[in-house]
Amino acid sequence: MLEIDGSFGEGGGQILRTSLTLSALTGRPFRLNNIRIRRKNPGLQAQHLASVKVAKLLADAEVKGDFLGSTLLEFRPKEIQEGDFTIDIGTAGSVSLVSVTAIPLMINRRTTLRILGGTDVPLSPPIDYMRLVYLPVIEKMGIRGKIKLLRRGHYPKGGGEVLLDSFRGNPVDLNLKEFGTLVEVRGVSHVSSLPGHIARRQAEGAREVLKTLAVPIHIEEEVRAEESTGSGITLSGIGSSVVGSSSLGERGVRAETVGERSAKGLLKVLETKASLDDHMSDMIMNFSFFANLSYTGSEFTEHCKTNLSIIRKFLDIEVSLKGDKPFHIEIRKRVL
Question: Out of 48, 190, 279, 303, which one is annotated catalytic?
Fold first, then answer.
């Protein structure tokens, strides 16, 4: 059984999520201790327990320590299962982060997964990022899938609902050394249970910042009622690869400012000429189980560093890393 110290590196939930995914894929059990031990609320929280629960279901695993506040978890996977599953986080915990745990386990299996929780919450990629950036990037590896947004959930109420379905493909090596020429910006500006003009004003704020790019800008304005209250905007820049940025509405912050923040974030990534932004640079690493990876990331964050360390424990890989902001990395399976 692999022994993993949950306090090293960024010391957060990323260690848990990557361990769960790769354990299920490789069949290697692990024991994770000191889970989030340095955080204000140490141990497993509802969002982390949801990732444990989904991995337990999909891998038919034997698990010890899967309770609120636990700082020790043992996970023994069996065969990956097929079927229709539902996970309720029970809070506004991030649906996107639970999705990242589950999707690699769903590839080429007759599996659907319904997740209830927060679709647009702080400190995690919104669900529109998963649709506008995550899906197009893994498609470049030959993997296609569907992320259907059924209902939005904002902090603190949650109540969002997403359906993951039809992840299929024959994975090929990823080679994204350059972003290339920007050809288009796409986005979604949404508002839930608030005046509809907020979505329009967020989009206008973003367009004003991005107009100097001289490329087509297509931002969908989405207005929903009778859901949790909130707003936000997600943007994607499309070239040879896809990068993204997002911003959530805040009480007392003008809608135009929310749009401007997301646009400025996108410009910052584009200036690096990286093929993947900081979120995707991290999340794509788990796909080294399926194929070799070569890409340029906007920033080698502590999340990336920690994630790579965990991956090395599960997979026999060779890694070449150059730079920091941006960085270029090659992850290849070791040939014996």
Answer: 303
Question: Directed axis angle between helix 302-314 and helix 13-26, to 10°?
Answer: 30
The DSSP code for 73 is E
Q: In the prediction, which pLDDT does 10 show?
A: 85
**Residues β-bridged to residue 321:** 329
The verdict on whether omega for the bond into residue 136 sits within 30 degrees of 0, i.e. cis, is no
pLDDT surpassing 60 at residue 336: no
- Confirm if 246 and 219 have CB atoms less than 8 A apart: no
pTM: 0.96
At 288, list the tokens: 């080294």
* Percent residues over pLDDT 90 in the chain: 94
Q: Are 153 and 159 in contact (CB under 8 A)?
A: yes
Q: Which residues of 246-273 are buried (b: 16+ CB within 10 A; e: fewer)?
A: bbbbeeeeebbebbbbbbebbbebbebe
The answer to whether residue 303 is catalytic is yes
Q: Does pLDDT of 101 surpass 70? A: yes
143: left (phi over 0), alpha (psi -120 to 50) or beta: beta
